[in-house]
Amino acid sequence: MQRNLRGTSRSATDVPADLFARTAELAAQWLRSLDRRPVAASADLDELRYRLGGPLPVGPADPLMVVEDLARAAEPGLVAIPSGRYFGFVIGGGLPAAVAADWLTSVWDQCPGFYACGPAASVVEEVTGGWLAALLGLPVDASFAFVTGCQTAHLTCLATARHHVLRAVDWNVEELGLSGAPSIRVVVGARRHVSVDRALRFLGIGRVSLRVLPVDGSGRMEVSRLRDELATAGPPTIVCAQAGEVNTGAFDDLDDIADAVAGTGAWLHVDGAYGLWTAASPALRHLVRGVERADSWAFDAHKWLNVPYDSGLAFCAHPDSHRAAMTATAEYLVQGGPGQPRDAMDWTPAFSRRARGFAVYAALRSLGREGVAELLERSCAHARRFAAGLATVPGCEVLNEVVINQVLFRFDDDRSTDAVLRRVIDSGEAWLSGTTLDGRRAIRLSVTNWQTSDSDITRALDAFRTAAAELLGRGPSSTENDRKGPFLT
């Protein structure tokens, strides 16, 4: 029994009978609205602060009223990310089975930090980790962790790498810390994702330790320079490669990089945030040839697998090092037991966390191997069609080879590029993000949502054709150019 603020006792059976039914109805209404609603939010910052703000209430309120008021107040500030016409930031939607499983995850409220606290959550992660290794061609004995996203996956993998390369020179970083430790050399490409640097910073490895190698025009690491770097005797070394550059979608030559690293004692980490999923497609897996030869892999499920936020994975080929870098124990914890259950806190930076395995399990069960491959290949086909359509829009230049699901393009100049993008977003027909490439403005489209259809691509292309026709030739007005939105970097 539980007491509310007014002193009356309540139990779970006192929850209003229609609360969850009404919540499901609100959720269904939102999903049904996606095809006809603007993709961008309609409310500005001041309006949202007004709608959602105010002083903290003094007393309790009816839960059903709270949920309905929240849905009503938040609605104009919601971006239609689950829509098939959301093409920003390599963000997927939510597969129906994954969303439903995520609802159950909240209701079940399990803590999968260790087996005793959530047996089913622990086992579903164990099973799902094995499925993912098989699907992506990773070593069957690789250890893994369910984490918040690729940022924390990098942190997990690179902490393991730090442990491993320092142990090789007889330094126990968990015992001795970094003060007085041998320096670590980290070799990266010039177009790596910023989350790699951020994870290294969290681990006490600063920018001075980076050896930044040049890349080609698409962002692929120049492997000949990597060989030169590794041929020079140096401190314990971590090499970070990339499967899917964030703007162009380009892939480092992972097999060639693995050849360069072989025999040097360096640890090879792969940032596969979304690109690693191509290993699940017979038509695309050549892009990650050699990926299984790495020592660790970081990637997201909330991107191309289309499970709800947040959901990332870290895999390591050296379980002993992984566990040594992550594990913790205390007298009050109930760890291990008959049958050797898997205690997830041995593999992640977190004690308490969400049971993310349920949604990933449901996504994989609902798609199967063939469904995952079809989702990937369909997304890439949509991206190629979009790029082909853009090539017919006056003043538009496609900047990248469309390797997978990323299309990078610009218009005549920076002002035109930003103005056309803004006009498309304001139309409500699509949402894309802007970027800067080689000092010039560009627009980045990512087809990552399971719902994206031919009709969605047609609507987005028509929006760009209309915006270009309206704006090019007379140029964007100064008022338009001065407006700043969240899509500008």
From TrEMBL:
Q: Name one GO molecular function term.
A: aromatic-L-amino-acid decarboxylase activity
Lyase: is it a keyword of this entry?
yes
| Highest taxon in the source lineage | Bacteria
N6-(pyridoxal phosphate)lysine sites (modified residues): 303
GO BP terms, alphabetized: carboxylic acid metabolic process
Tell me which UniProt keywords the record has, alphabetically.
Decarboxylase, Lyase, Pyridoxal phosphate
Organism of origin: Plantactinospora soyae
Q: Which cofactors, if any, are listed as required?
A: pyridoxal 5'-phosphate
Name the UniProt record assigns to this protein: Glutamate/tyrosine decarboxylase-like PLP-dependent enzyme
A Pfam family reported for this protein in Swiss-Prot or TrEMBL: Pyridoxal_deC
What protein family does this chain belong to? Belongs to the group II decarboxylase family.
- Kindly indicate whether the keyword Lyase belongs to this entry: yes
